[in-house]
Task: structure prediction
Amino acid sequence: MEIILSGVIKNKDMKRFIISIVLCIIALGSFAEKQRYYCEIKGIQKPLLTGLKIVFDFGENPIYTSWGGLTNKQKIVNEKGEEIRFNSMVDAGNYMSSKGWTLQQAYSSVYSDNFIIQWIFYKDAESPEEAIKGIVTKEQYKNNQK
Result:
């Protein structure tokens, strides 16, 4: 009688063990498919105006014009194609956080005699499209309208 009971217990334990292994493999497989994507937010003082010009660099297009300024193509727009105006770098950072991005690093630099604030964000996703889901640049919006 003891042999039969211990055999049943071993079978239950074995089933639990196998189910645990299968669940671990599934969980690890879903993590393995994700990749880290980065976005750099650049803020530069607007000439003769107060406030910052803020652009988003997802690494897809050049963000500087041939004259050394930041291009407007990398500004973020809403679903109607209207530019979203950010009050500050913190406002832009809060926007990225609401889209699932995480701040990794903040620093500043000088480019063509302009002081630039730069914040690096990252997001783990299965594709670039998934990473930027819900975020549309002015250039992407124009391309989608064609």
About this structure: The longest strand covers residues 114-125. Residues 35-145 form one domain. The helical segments are 2-32, 89-98, 128-131, 138-145. The radius of gyration is 24 Å.
